[in-house]
């Protein structure tokens, strides 16, 4: 079982996200107060910290120093368990992963790894998520 390491939101797309202790997740919509909410297929972004192992040595410091660009940072679940069409439960919230990475890769900071290994999906069941909550693949 994994856990939530950080929760992050921003009011405007394309900007670094601010850490918060908890979020309200709205079914079929996303995280309340985040710029990416809406009726589309990338309502929530997730970065497993295990993905940092895939960052080249010449990029790792830059990635670690970069601000958060994902909504939910998790740890403790192997990357191969977080594939397309898998679902995860965080507390009472259920998220279905529809994509790994983005069509265009970013070459700088935290977006470097999020654009390659971030998980993007939709909210199947809403609720509250807190830092430290357990994460499980269902």
From TrEMBL:
This is MOSC domain protein. PANTHER family: METAL-SULFUR CLUSTER BIOSYNTHESIS PROTEINS YUAD-RELATED, MOSC DOMAIN-CONTAINING PROTEIN. The lineage of its organism: Bacteria, Bacillati, Bacillota, Clostridia, Eubacteriales. It comes from Clostridium coskatii. Residues 18-138 form the MOSC domain. It comes from the Bacteria. It holds the Pfam family MOSC. GO terms for molecular function: catalytic activity; molybdenum ion binding; pyridoxal phosphate binding.
């Amino acid at each position: 079982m994994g856990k939530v390491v950080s929760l992050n939101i921003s009011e405007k797309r394309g900007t670094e996200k601010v850490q918060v202790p908890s979020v309200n997740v709205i079914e079929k919509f996303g995280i309340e107060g985040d710029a990416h909410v809406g009726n589309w297929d990338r309502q929530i972004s997730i970065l497993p910290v295990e993905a940092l192992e895939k960052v080249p040595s010449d990029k790792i410091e830059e990635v670690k120093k970069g601000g958060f660009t994902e909504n939910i940072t998790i740890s403790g679940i192997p990357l191969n368990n977080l594939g397309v069409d898998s679902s995860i439960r965080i507390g009472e919230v259920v998220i279905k992963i529809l994509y790994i990475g983005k069509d265009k890769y970013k070459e700088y900071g935290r977006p470097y790894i999020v654009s390659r290994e971030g998980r993007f999906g939709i909210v199947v069941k809403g609720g509250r998520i807190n830092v430290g909550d357990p994460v499980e693949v269902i």
